Amino acid sequence: MLQLKNIKKQFHKKVVLENITIDIQKGEIVSLLGPSGSGKTTLLNMILGLTNIDNGKLIYDGVDLTNAPMKERGFNIVFQDYALFPNLNAYENIVYGLRNNPSLATKEELEGFIAILGLKPHLKKKISELSGGQKQRVALARTLVTKPRILLLDEPFSALDGVIKESIKEKIKAIAREYELTTIIVTHDPEEALTLSDKVLIINEGKVSQFAKPQEIINEPKNNFVEDFIISQLHAKRENIYNLFGMCYG
Q1: Cα–Cα distances in Å, from 135 out to 87, 101, 163?
Q2: What is the chain's Cα-based Rg?
């Protein structure tokens, strides 16, 4: 379990995050949702270890990791731009993280990640020959072979649309279930968060507006911001969301 306790962060005397307190269970998919500037990316970077925590604690399975360097946390991230190596083919990118530690993943585990992500036909392709969805899957596979204790995703669908986006969402769900992999996703899109996650953390102006299951957020928004933010952004997509949760929308 990952526990965030009274997390606070400020830059140049401006408070960016304040009193962030949540528990994330093993294997859960949790989205960090909020408008631009709400602090969700800063929180993701603090979990990863890229950004220091000013106050509060970050605890994983009972161990205080608040001041632990990134390499000691055992978490890993897929960045928004995928950060793939253009001089390597798809397979070489996937196994890149195993160069210094080839025993980290067995051959069977490596093949399992490639299979679940549907990458076998694309392993010999150059990165420039891959579609956006294929690049996303290669980046996921490269991260998974390092066996992170927590998988972090920064706006993973921003460059995708339509069927490709839905396919990647289903693969992320399958991976989280198959490997009991705790997954934390930054997104600004309520539809992505509500249809993908077990729980959603809605952040507004650096504070928790609501942390709950998608159905609870839809049925019982905790405050006016949650209701306005969710409903206004889902208005054009309401049939998809409300059909998903068995809701009626007048």
Answers
A1: 14, 23, 15
A2: 18
